[in-house]
Design brief:
The structure holds 2 protein chains of 2 kinds. By secondary structure, chain A is α+β, with helices and mostly antiparallel strands. Chain A has a single domain, classed as OB fold (Dihydrolipoamide Acetyltransferase, E2P) (Beta Barrel). Chain A is 21% helix and 33% strand. Chain A is built from 4 helices and 9 strands. Chain A has a 6-stranded antiparallel beta sheet. A 3-stranded antiparallel beta sheet of chain A has the order 4-6-7. The longest helix of chain A is centred in the C-terminal third of the chain and has 11 residues. The two termini of chain A are 14 Å apart. By secondary structure, chain B is α+β, with helices and mostly antiparallel strands. Among the domains of chain B are: 134 residues, Probable tRNA modification gtpase trme, domain 1 (Gyrase A, domain 2); 82 residues, Beta Barrel (Elongation Factor Tu (Ef-tu), domain 3), CATH 2.40.30.110. Helices cover 20% and strands 34% of the residues of chain B. In chain B, strands 10-11-12-9-3-13 form a 6-stranded mixed beta sheet, sandwiched between helices. Chain B has a 6-stranded antiparallel barrel with strand order 14-17-16-15-18-19. The longest helix of chain B is centred in the N-terminal third of the chain and has 10 residues. Chain B starts with 7 loop residues before the first helix and ends with a strand. The relative contact order of chain B is 0.15. Classes of the chains: A alpha+beta, B alpha+beta. At the A-B interface, strand 4 of A face loops of B. Chain B: Keywords: Aminotransferase, Transferase. Chain B: GO terms for molecular function: aminomethyltransferase activity; transaminase activity. Chain B: It catalyses: N(6)-[(R)-S(8)-aminomethyldihydrolipoyl]-L-lysyl-[protein] + (6S)-5,6,7,8-tetrahydrofolate = N(6)-[(R)-dihydrolipoyl]-L-lysyl-[protein] + (6R)-5,10-methylene-5,6,7,8-tetrahydrofolate + NH4(+). Chain B: The glycine cleavage system catalyzes the degradation of glycine. Chain B: Pfam families: GCV_T, GCV_T_C.
Chain lengths: 128, 357
Amino acid sequence: MNLPQDLKYTASHEWVRLADDGTATIGITDHAQEQLGDVVFVELPDAGRQVKAGEECAVVESVKAASDIYAPLSGEIVEVNQAVVDAPEGINADAYSAWIFRLRPANPADVAQLLDAAAYEAEIGQQD
Amino acid sequence: MTRQTPLHDIHRAAGAKLVDFAGWDMPLHYGSQIEEHHLVRRAAGMFDVSHMLALDLSGTDARTWLRHLLANDVAKLSTPGRALYSCMLNADGGVIDDLIVYHFTPVRYRIVVNAGTADGDLAWMRQNSSGFAVSLAPRRDLAMIAVQGPQAIDAVWQAIPGSREATQGLAAFEAAEFGEMLLARTGYTGEDGIEISLPATQAEATWNALLAAGVKPAGLGARDTLRLEAGMNLYGQDIDASVTPLESGLGWTVDLKSSRDFIGRQALETRPVTRRLVGLVLLQRGVMRAHQTVVTKHGNGETTSGSFSPTMNCAIALARVPRDVAPGDTVHVEVRDRRLPARVVKPPFVRHGKILV
């Protein structure tokens, strides 16, 4: 399973890439796409929306099931990836480049609550 | 403990994602369900369907008994090898199972039933056979491989020496006995193809020969989207004992013309038909799933199967709706927290690679 060490994770299978400008880019993990199967539809949040950590803000649907995507951090959605709507299979091909939305955290210190790769891997082990 | 087919080791070695289906550990896909779907529509794919149960029926009353047991009439079958799709009903007209019966002679037939209903079917058949000179032999010693797609028949001919001569004269829905095999031009995908029934001991070698002939394995995921596009019901999802064939788009399989008295006939003739099974094509992005509410001007209905159609590149569904809902109508489906518009169509959605709706 592909689990980049430089990303942060959530127990609900989002990955988070933290940028120098303080924004966080979010997608779903390789493990999540493998569980879902072929992704056929992605519903994006509106840019500008304020979200709370743990709030549903996007949907990824596969041939098998619909899966809610949760905001890993509280903050404002600053950008969404229209390309992943047009080509949802990109999530299966490379889950870590097919990002879904970008968020500016309300409180930068919140990132400390995210999981690192080892903690996420342990989380998956427990769920299986 | 889930059961395994004779091809289980082959699926594991091929990296299949295995899931429990009706108590059997079966391949869902071997990588990509959508690629497998397209392969069957455009070339050839093969499915392990050994979880389904073949029953050999024999006896001097075989034909008479089937005419009592089944809603469709086996008297329609005259050529040896001819197959018939039928529902088996309870006394209320509810569907106990849907099955295929192959006719060899009036005293010898092969019946193929669904995996999840097999034990109950057999019990029902035995319970309703008293007074008939028939014997039923479950054939768990057999494996079944469904080879489907526009290139499927050629590939079978290449993989199984001598099979061409045995099957080239077959029309659709006909089968030929070939040594210990039964080669049937039947399937569950809306494409042409051959379903091979063969001794379990020969399953791996035949599977490998088909691989060598260019046929790719396909899992139950693709099988489900293929049959849904083909407008074919899935037992336990679109039909079950709570509905009749007349509410399920299966009126064409119920023979009410002959005077024979089959189990469930009286109920079908008296029970009012208030619902029908229709196809839905979603007019917006999103994916319909089973058990979503369908809002129509004639009252509410419910989706029974729904998925993304790889061929049409949009969501499709089967739905049981009030009888007056007609093809061409626009209805609304409650997909998660939204009501999305969908067009009512008459299934099938896709046959032989072509979109029909």
